[in-house]
Amino acid sequence: MRSHWSHKLFLKLGRRPPLNWLLLCFVSVLALIVILASPSSNTVDSVPSSSIPDIYKNYRRIKQQAASDYLEITSLSLGISHPRELDLCSKERENYVPCYNVSANLFAGFHDGEEFDRHCEASRSGPRCLVRPPKDYKIPLRWPAGRDVIWSGNVKITKDQFLSSGSMTKRLMLLEENQIAFHSEDGMNIGGVKDYSRQIAEMIGLGSDSEFIQAGVRTILDIGCGFGSFGAHLLSLNVMTICIAAYEVFGSQVQLSLERGLPAMIGNFISRQLPYPALSFDMVHCAQCGIIWDEKDGAFLIEVDRVLKPGGYFVLTSPTRKSQGGSLDAKKTISFTPIEEFTQKICWSLLGQQDETFIWQKTTDVHCYLSRKQDGVPPLCKGDYDAQSYYEPLLSCISGTTSKRWVPIQKRSSGSQLSSVELAIHGVHLEDFSEDSQFWASALRNYWSLLTPLIFSDHPKRPGDEDPLPPFNMIRNVMDMNANYGGLNAAFLEENKSVWVMNVVPVNTPNTLPLILDRGFAGVLHDWCEPFPTYPRTYDMLHANGLLSHIINSECDISNLLLEMDRILRPEGWVVLCDKLHVIEKTRALVTQVRWEARVIQLQNDNDRLLLVCQKPFLKK
Ligand SMILES: *[C@@H]1O[C@H](CO)[C@@H](O)[C@H](O)[C@H]1NC(C)=O
Ligand SMILES: *[C@@H]1O[C@H](CO)[C@@H](O)[C@H](O)[C@H]1NC(C)=O
Predict the structure, then answer these.
(1) Which residue segment(s) compose the domain that 605 sits in?
(2) Could you tell me the pTM of the whole model?
(3) Which residues form a coiled coil (predicted)?
(4) Do 513 and 594 lie in a common domain?
(5) In angstroms, rounded to a whole number, what is the distance separating the alpha carbons of residues 321 and 358?
(6) Is 496 near ligand 2, meaning CB less than 6 Å away?
(7) Which one of 36, 352, 411, 500 is most buried, by most CB atoms within 10 A?
């Protein structure tokens, strides 16, 4: 299972150098090889690696590869493939998120709120250019300091949003001229996030919020998360909280959460389902999230029911409930009655109400639905399926009841390593799963050793030199663009890396998203022919194993995918692509367009595939 890695190329292929320059480089590469060859000519290949990353030990293959590299270099210099470097976009596109152009959506005929939905088909694709960082952009602070303090120049926010102290989850403060601080850990505040979290725990019958995990609450979907402070607190208790909120031009909840290193994505369910399968989350939370829950004949509540696991909780905090006397407040209170009536029809039980917070629990008993015969009770969906769905309309029926995944959250095992019974539900064998886990544990160790600017140096480390510093906490937001079982995520956890992973399952591949979510990981279904619903500069690392060969066989274009990856990647962020030989060769040539530093790495035990490691530069102009 252990694989060794070696440099394939010594030369940066970023620009188009003249032929004689290339030849000069080739000669110096040979010279370097001569220098390096002797100390590494012993049996490095068979020495199991300990702390020293394999890549820096293994120079032997370079000699054999020099010849083939020379051929590649010549072919490049002959102009076989020379995509031009793209220009930076105009300043207006600094925070560009495709598919959310309201005026274009209105023009295309969407209305009744649907103009705020995601409509990629309505937005014409703009100029092909690289989204530039704002003028005073700074590399975010490292985790965990960056969770509580961000650079104000990195996000788009108005002066008013700065100064207003806002709701509990939205409290922020201008620290210095160029920093914003979040006061999530301020227990002194009445109504602080910690108190709020404890209150929720008590309302569902727990002693404190540190018991969430034991009670089966591992994953929470936080709709309209403020600036993520509730999620930040829950993450410290190992509860995976994913924020979704609508696209916002200023003071975006999603942009600020991601800037803080907290899981978030743009998402709304005005007319279409969320991109998650049925029975996905242990808790859905909405604190003043702006959704009018009793609209559309309860379709929004049915959608919450769909994504909730059996026995899961819906927490709703809304100030309109506050009755301080007076006719206006009484009226507002009454508007909650339809919600309460509807929740009974869909077999939720009200666990409690305290101040402005309501908590309902979804039933664990499928028969409950059949016993309700009043008017307006939503029927069970026919032909229940966990099939791959994307852009499906909101339902008016109850789903998930015939799923094999109908398992109450209180009865589930708590780790991310699923039992063989749980795996069987997903049609996965324990051996395959274990093999996958081992593969990723080993792959991650190798990746990690590659994530250093040193690999782009023309003078790689010599044997005996100090090891390069691993990127400890420089990487926080990771996206696995083709996540399969979530193996990379699991490996990160085992290595105690302080990252979270957005596990993306591409459409038209085996739908492993239910498995990923059942492991307690963040995940989403996505069509990589379209832009990802996130703001620019939100991920530190993008990883894709086998995605490119999937894209190359589809109708969409790898160079557009690279452009989109560049948009969502932070400056100095990393890309790790693993794929078939010819696909990596093609991609490496295209990487020139997005101006990434790139290096091809050969996998020792795998002659059919290559690794392409890239870093996005911090372009200022
Ligand atoms: C949004 O769409 C309008 C109308 O099609 C267009 O003029 C405008 O440039 C678009 N905005 C962006 C940011 O693409
Ligand atoms: C990760 O942390 C756990 C608990 O602190 C520890 O037992 C384990 O050895 C650590 N793993 C690694 C690879 O450092």
Answers:
(1) 420-615
(2) 0.84
(3) none
(4) yes
(5) 10
(6) yes
(7) 500
